[in-house]
TrEMBL record:
Gene3D superfamilies with a match to the protein in the record: alpha/beta hydrolase
Cellular component terms (Gene Ontology): membrane
Superkingdom of the source species: Bacteria
Protein name stated in the entry: Alpha/beta hydrolase
GO biological process: acylglycerol catabolic process
GO molecular function: monoacylglycerol lipase activity
Length: 349
């Protein structure tokens, strides 16, 4: 470990211990706002010190061979960080070294259809339904022989983290979820929304058509860049940052997984029967009892529920935080300190 990182780790542990001890517990339904970066609460690594994740590891897990980041001490408490659509592991580029420096073992897998993650068989359906992604995450933990972990994510990753916490709480030490409770069902998605809410889902309806599938396949990078800009209107996305993530969308299964996910939600594509029982449990919207912190950016341009709509789904120790400062949908990358702080705080609940 470089000396600069080692010094940062010692400073982080000292400061974070005091911060965790003083952090307030807020009951379900309440919230507090905090800036994206709070000077004096957490030490930071030098900006730009982490330019990529190398080398990646590979592990066979369920239907996949998963490419993943494994950072920090092997004996540290595991933290599973899950990315969303259309993003990748680099959303955690600054979160990961901060948590690793604090003594955590940080694990960041590429989801199915992203990066170097591949299906083991050509015959496996390119399925993007929520249950498949959740089972992928469980298989990943099993493959690494990890019994319990802190789980955290945003977008598709938040939904997967919520499912892990709801269905397999014995595997989750704590949960950090951007935009709260995101477990869904085909039945709920069949209900129309008010027109302005439907407008936010324009790409879902686009993907329901063959023109949309072909358009996404032909213009993947431009489409992704547009989604980033709409979902995070105040995030200054430079070309270097986007270029770092763009290769992840060249995965041969990326388009198929993305299209299936959104078509499945609307009942336009079938899932796999092996997930039927799990989907029935999820359609009942199970409560989450593990310690949880939910986060929301004050400039999230993507569709997301209001915190009051999901607060009662968290029946254990729970806190909601509004992250201010023009923070959009990709909260871990836009506000890494706030995200890392939430992971450490929920570990202290």
């Amino acid at each position: 470990m470089p000396e600069t990182i080692d010094r940062a780790r010692r400073r982080w542990i000292t400061t974070a211990g005091a911060f965790l001890a003083a952090a307030p517990f807020v009951r379900a339904g309440s919230a507090r706002a905090e800036p994206a970066a709070s000077p004096g609460t957490l030490p930071t690594l030098a900006a730009g010190a982490q330019t990529g994740f190398h080398p990646l590891k590979q592990v066979a897990a369920g239907d996949l061979t998963v490419a993943y980041v494994d950072m920090g001490p092997a004996t540290g408490r595991p933290v599973l960080l899950l990315h969303g659509w259309p993003y990748d592991i680099h959303s955690y580029l600054d979160v990961a070294p901060a948590l690793a420096a604090a003594g955590y073992r940080v694990l960041i897998p590429y989801l199915r259809g992203y990066g170097e993650t591949r299906f083991l068989s050509d015959a496996t359906p390119r399925n993007g339904q929520q249950a498949a992604l959740a089972v992928d995450a469980l298989n990943f933990l099993d493959a690494l022989r990890i019994e319990t972990a802190l789980v955290a994510g945003y977008d598709w990753g938040a939904r997967t983290a919520c499912i892990l916490a709801a269905i397999w709480p014995e595997r989750c030490k704590g949960l950090v979820s951007v935009s709260g409770y995101l477990i869904g069902s085909q039945q709920a998605n069949a209900m129309p929304l008010p027109p302005r809410a439907e407008l936010q889902w324009w790409y879902q309806f686009y993907f329901a058509t063959e023109r949309g599938r072909e358009g996404y396949a032909r213009n993947t990078r431009d489409f992704v860049r547009l989604i980033w800009e709409l979902a995070s209107p105040k995030w200054r996305i430079d070309d270097v940052t986007f270029a770092r993530s763009a290769p992840a969308f060249e995965n041969p299964d990326h388009v198929a997984i993305s299209i299936h996910n959104y078509r499945w939600r609307l009942g336009l594509a079938e899932g796999e029967t092996k997930y039927d029982d799990l989907e029935r449990r999820l359609a009942a919207f199970p409560s989450i009892a593990v310690p949880t912190i939910t986060l929301e950016g004050d400039a999230n341009g993507a569709p997301h529920p209001e915190p009051a709509a999901y607060a009662k789904k968290f029946t254990g120790r729970y806190e909601h935080r509004l992250i201010t400062g023009g923070i959009g949908h990709n909260l871990p990358q836009e506000a890494p300190q706030a995200f890392a702080r939430a992971v450490m705080n929920v570990d202290g609940f």
